């Protein structure tokens, strides 16, 4: 039998939750097609229960991930880029199918996506110096303002840009020590689900990123209302859904990043996607006094 | 507690302040009547004396104020930053010049002791304007991209606990960044904001840049819901904050919220007890405990519980409660009958739930709104007095054995505004501070504020920061990719 005739092995696309690859607890799947309507795969159609399970996993992972050194997080995110580079062909194929792109255009997207991981890997141990610092208090005190991760962040990934857009919203969330529950693009979830496989082999602790596929509105609603979710990025929500989710998010005062028009995901991001999910903690200390006779040198 | 060393009265003179019998709304540089002609009274909480009659703004008045602010925005935002800076410097200086008058006014309208308005509120108000004045022409260097742009018209709603200071926290950064404002002071403490309007006049601030609309919650709701504001800044209760977050959902309005708290003040067994006692007292009895970042939960290491409580009770017995204008007064009046009722209800609930209540012998004046400093011991985490923000002079005492337990208990609240740590061990301070989910942590001190230092909460204590470089972000448009705006 020649190679051409060989029957290929299909991949069962599964969710990525808590470092494992479960099917939806609901047992449901939905059909994912390419830009021309050709069947690509069945993706899990996540339920509210899947969303809640993902929150539990993300919360469990938060202490370890936020407590890791910034250097360590940088190394791990860089490792993600390394792993992606090795799987580039697969992602080019998936992105081309998902977004109806030529192979060369898809390769550009995947290249930019890998570079985006590298960009954020470098930020992990710099953001605190850029947005934090000492404050010149008018009194005998020393205080220091430092950024800290907000906590568990629900991310509604962009609907159109299935991979570059996805990574552009996920990487800034976890670079600073948050953990994430990501709702993949509803129509094009396959690159996101495959990303889970990359994360699982990149030393990213289980639960730091959790990927759910399915109906965006169905999964986002319980996350926006969840009392143990601290923030939500509405990048991939349309106007009506974004408003509904923002209202639900007010119940425990989640930090909300509203959808913003993005023409070109490949443009160098600013730091706003990181600062949106950072808290500032200011710690005060009395400086004491050694008396008036200091050295004049 | 009468003694041979009873203090003679030492009241600050009221003659430095001249309160008019009535005030209108300050819109477009003029005081005007409210469209509906409605007024309300503002009283002195320590005597229930009516101080003045204030216009109640309705939606029509709010709309007029927003239109004035919108009209003023074009020119104000186009002014060179150096010119905006000079206006703010003028305001800072006039506040310094008029600080005694404003301190007395604030004490009369709010009920807090003159020693606090004189030594804390007013110096901080002037410093805040002075600090943000200097930013107005340096925004390119603030880390928000080149040529950062203002948002437009800011609608600001502030509480009654630090009326003029909260005004300063709202107006100074808004104006420095080129926004114009419509501010609603609290219903029970409108006077200092109206005096501030006069300061704007003296400073020659262009008409419409600052508008003051007085009224109750309905006025605030109308302001927050107005379609032509670009920014909402609110300081107040978490319940109202959530309502505001729902109101602005799906709009372009940028939102910052500074809400409630249930701050933990953690005392370890190696803490300097006398200093800790002063810090505990300052943490919960400063401003009668009507402070969002109050240290209202005392977490004491079990081994020093009895010793600390004894010292604390002894110290509380020396606090002087009474005439807020008296320079020796430590504890003034509760701001309103409504707030007094809330404190009373929650304290009664604490007792009913089985916590042990204690107050020093303390005579309360017969008129006005008063509440004696109160301690609850034998408090568990399930008690209402350990969970709800009381916003009054009521301290709940809990214990812990290990640092991990202290951290777990401190973080066991939906709030996350402030915390205190008392220990002589430096590494423990850093380790515990690192684990506390709170926006401001004071180690071996409490309730310190400074215009250069960002202030604001985690979790349900709100979001956004006021003060410092961070405080500018609330009033600037988000940067686009490429760092341009």
UniProtKB/TrEMBL annotation, chain A:
InterPro entries: Ald_DH/histidinol_DH (IPR016161), Ald_DH_N (IPR016162), Aldehyde_DH_dom (IPR015590). Gene3D superfamilies: Aldehyde Dehydrogenase, Chain A, domain 1. GO terms for molecular function: oxidoreductase activity. It holds the Pfam family Aldedh. Keywords: Oxidoreductase. Residues 25-256 form the Aldehyde dehydrogenase domain. It comes from the Bacteria. This is Aldehyde dehydrogenase. It comes from Streptomyces aurantiogriseus.
TrEMBL record, chain B:
Transmembrane segments: none annotated. Keywords: Oxidoreductase. InterPro entries: Ald_DH/histidinol_DH, Ald_DH_C, Ald_DH_CS_CYS, Ald_DH_N, Aldehyde_DH_dom. Residues 461-485 are annotated as: Disordered. PANTHER family: ALDEHYDE DEHYDROGENASE-RELATED (PTHR11699). Belongs to the aldehyde dehydrogenase family. This is Aldehyde dehydrogenase. It comes from Streptomyces aurantiogriseus. The lineage of its organism: Bacteria, Bacillati, Actinomycetota, Actinomycetes, Kitasatosporales.
């Amino acid at each position: 039998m020649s190679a051409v005739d060989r029957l290929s092995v299909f991949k069962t696309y599964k969710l990525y939750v808590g470092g494992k690859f479960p099917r939806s607890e609901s047992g449901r799947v939905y059909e994912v097609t390419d830009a021309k309507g050709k069947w690509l795969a069945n993706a899990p159609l996540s339920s509210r229960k899947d969303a809640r399970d993902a929150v539990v996993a993300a919360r469990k992972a938060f202490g370890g991930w936020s407590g890791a050194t910034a250097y360590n997080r940088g190394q791990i995110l860089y490792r993600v880029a390394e792993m992606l580079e090795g799987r580039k062909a697969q992602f080019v194929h998936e992105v081309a199918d998902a977004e109806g792109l030529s192979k060369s255009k898809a390769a550009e997207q995947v290249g930019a996506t890998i570079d985006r991981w590298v960009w954020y890997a470098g930020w992990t141990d710099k953001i605190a110096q850029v947005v934090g610092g000492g404050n010149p208090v008018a009194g005998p005190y020393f205080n220091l303002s430092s950024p800290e991760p907000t906590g568990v962040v629900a991310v509604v990934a962009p609907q159109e840009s299935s991979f570059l857009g996805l990574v552009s919203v996920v990487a800034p969330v976890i670079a600073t020590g948050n953990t994430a529950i990501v709702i993949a693009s509803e129509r094009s979830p396959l690159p996101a689900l495959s990303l889970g496989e990359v994360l699982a082999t990149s030393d990213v602790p289980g639960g730091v990123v959790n990927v759910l596929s399915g109906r965006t509105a169905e999964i986002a609603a319980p996350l926006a209302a969840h009392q143990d979710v601290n923030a939500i990025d509405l990048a991939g929500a349309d106007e009506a859904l974004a408003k509904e989710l923002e209202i639900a998010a007010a119940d425990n005062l989640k930090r909300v990043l509203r959808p913003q028009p993005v023409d070109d995901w490949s443009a160098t991001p600013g730091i706003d996607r990181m600062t949106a999910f950072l808290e500032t903690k200011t710690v005060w200390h009395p400086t004491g006094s050694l008396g008036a006779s200091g050295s004049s040198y | 507690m009468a003694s041979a060393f009873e203090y003679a009265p030492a009241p600050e003179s009221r003659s430095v302040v001249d309160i008019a019998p009535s005030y209108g709304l300050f819109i477009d540089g003029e005081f005007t009547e409210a469209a509906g002609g409605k007024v309300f009274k503002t009283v002195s909480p320590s005597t229930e004396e009516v101080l003045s009659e204030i216009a109640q703004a309705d939606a029509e008045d709010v709309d007029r104020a927003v239109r004035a602010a919108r009209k003023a925005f074009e020119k104000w935002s186009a002014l060179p930053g150096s010119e905006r800076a000079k206006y703010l410097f003028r305001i800072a200086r006039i506040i310094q010049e008029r600080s005694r008058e404003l301190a007395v006014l604030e004490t009369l309208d709010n009920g807090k002791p003159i020693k606090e308005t004189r030594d804390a509120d007013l110096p901080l108000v002037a410093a805040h304007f002075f600090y943000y004045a200097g930013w107005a022409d340096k925004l390119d260097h603030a880390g928000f991209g080149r040529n950062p742009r203002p948002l437009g018209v800011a609608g600001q709603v502030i509480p009654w606990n630090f009326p003029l200071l909260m005004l300063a926290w709202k107006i100074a950064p808004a104006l420095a960044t080129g926004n114009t404002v419509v501010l609603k002071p609290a219903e029970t403490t409108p006077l200092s904001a109206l005096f501030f309007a006069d300061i704007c006049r003296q400073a020659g601030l262009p008409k419409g840049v600052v508008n003051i609309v007085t009224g109750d919650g309905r006025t605030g709701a109308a302001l927050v819901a107005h379609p032509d504001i670009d920014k909402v800044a609110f300081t107040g209760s978490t319940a109202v904050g959530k309502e505001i977050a729902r109101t602005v959902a799906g709009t372009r309005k940028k939102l910052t919220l500074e809400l409630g708290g249930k701050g933990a003040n953690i005392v370890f067994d190696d803490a300097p007890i006398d200093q800790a006692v002063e810090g505990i007292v300052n943490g919960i009895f400063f401003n009668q405990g009507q402070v969002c970042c109050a240290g209202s939960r005392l977490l004491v290491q079990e081994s020093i519980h009895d010793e600390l409580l004894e010292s604390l009770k002894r110290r509380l017995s020396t606090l002087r409660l009474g005439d807020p204008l008296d320079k020796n007064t430590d504890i003034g009046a509760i701001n309103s009958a409504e707030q007094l009722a809330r404190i009373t209800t929650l304290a009664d609930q604490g007792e009913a739930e089985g916590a042990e209540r204690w107050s020093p012998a303390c005579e309360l004046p017969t008129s006005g709104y008063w509440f004696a400093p109160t301690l609850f011991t034998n408090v568990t985490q399930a008690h209402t007095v350990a969970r709800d923000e009381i916003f009054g002079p009521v301290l709940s005492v809990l214990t812990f054995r290990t640092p991990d337990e202290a951290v777990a208990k401190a973080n066991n609240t939906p709030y996350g505004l402030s915390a205190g740590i008392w220990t002589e061990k430096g590494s423990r301070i850093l380790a515990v501070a690192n684990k506390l989910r709170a926006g401001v942590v004071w180690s071996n001190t409490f309730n310190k504020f400074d215009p250069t230092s960002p202030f604001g909460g985690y979790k349900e204590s709100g979001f956004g920061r006021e003060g410092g470089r961070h405080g500018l972000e609330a009033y600037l448009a988000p940067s686009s990719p490429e760092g341009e705006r």
